[in-house]
């Protein structure tokens, strides 16, 4: 969990190996710390997903693992999942924007 760095597990293929369809981001402390999880599962999590997007050859994570998924200082893991699903489905920042006639905010996919 180092800001700006998306680590590759030694036993895994390189992050930029686009022949693999699974992009898993583990974002949790080795020793669970419930008191720090609200910060971890908020803006830090979203920032890490953006960092890993670049490190994986511009591929969004399709799995995210966190500790205490209900704890955050805002949308948390749920907001992160909505953002990822929106990016994967239609290129928007929120999956709700992908619905035709959505009032969740305008999105012009890239």
Descriptive overview:
This protein is mainly alpha-helical and 110 residues long. It contains 3 helices and 2 strands. The longest helix is centred in the C-terminal third of the chain and has 14 residues, at 76-89.
How many E-type strands?
2
Distance between the termini: 29 Å
Q: Strand count, sense and closure of the main sheet?
A: 2 strands, parallel
Biggest sheet: strand arrangement: 1-2
Share of helix among residues? 25-40%
Low-confidence runs: none
Assembly type? single chain
Q: Element order, helices and strands? A: EHHEH
**For the residues shown, what is the average pLDDT?**
87
Question: Quick one: overall form?
Answer: flat
Structural class, judged by helices and strands? Answer: mainly alpha
* Number of helices in the DSSP assignment: 3
Q: Strand content of the residues, in percent?
A: 5-15%
Radius of gyration over all CA atoms, rounded: 15 Å
